[in-house]
Amino acid sequence: WTDEGCYNVEGGCYAKCVNLSPKQEPEIYNAIKFGAVVENVVYDENRRPLYENTSLTENTRCAYPLEHIPGCVIPAVGDHPQNVIFLTCDAFGVLPPVSLLTPDQASYHFLSGYTAKVAGTEVGVVEPTATFSACYGGPFLVYHPMAYASRLAEKLTKHGVKAWLINTGWTGGGYGVGKRISLKDTRAIIDKIHDGSLLKAKFSTLPKFGLNYVSEVSDISSKILDPHTAWKSEAEYTVALEKLASLFAKNFSQYADRVVPQIKSAGPS
Q1: Can you spell out the DSSP letters for 12-53?
Q2: Of the candidates 239, 248, 255, 267, the residue with the CA atom closest to the CA atom of residue 132
Q3: SS3 at position 111
């Protein structure tokens, strides 16, 4: 993200292949053709990939050139963004599918880098485990995470960019109880962010976290959008909510001496 706009240096995409289908993920499915590379994918005698076969590992992947995606922009250069989207996979089923962040909340969640390790991402991981990785890429940071968070905050403020937190994890309960938020619903949310319609939706406030989340919007079930009502037991949801809030607070304590009070207070209370 420069003074002129944004650019992508990767020139391609890297995606999971497990249970890939033309119905659920048509863009990725159709992008796997001559010029693409698949890893750990079993195929039949006719060299047809068997994406549902995980006999080698669940960590099956594909890499393909950017031009394999319809509507891609080449060269991958654009203006300043209107929206910045953080992706998290909440295995506790606590966080809403989509929240609009304040600048301070954006800094807090960028520094926290909360998500869950899921099966197929690392050896030995067979069920989701909560993890925090500063700026969503801790191992790759050269400077202190606050340096990157400060730079992001400057960019968001200077260019009037909205920041969103998207949860692609569980709803209606944690892993093993609830269900994973569907790719269809996540895509619908992303589309509504880009066309501006999500700003006109009904918002509610998430207890403890203070997140301003979308609780009602057309074409997406409110049972999916509102994590509180998605759970069968309000008491069990409250326990999970408080547990996740405590994990956030414990992780963020490492930044206590480097952040301004308003950023620290933008997290769970």
Answers
A1: EEEEE-TT--TTT-HHHHHH-STT-EEES--B-TT--B-TT-
A2: 248
A3: helix
Q: What are phi and psi of 91, to 5 degrees?
A: -75, -10
pLDDT tens, 6-64? Answer: 998 888 888 989 999 998 889 999 999 999 999 999 999 998 999 999 999 888 999 99
Beta-bridge partner residues of 220:
217
CA gap 177, 175 in Å, rounded: 6
The alpha carbon of residue 90 and the mean position of all alpha carbons in its chain are separated, in whole angstroms, by 9
This prediction's pTM = 0.86
Q: Tens digit of pLDDT for each residue in 146-183?
A: 999 999 999 999 999 999 999 999 999 998 899 999 88
Q: Residue 125: which region, alpha, beta or left (left: phi > 0; alpha: psi -120 to 50)?
A: beta
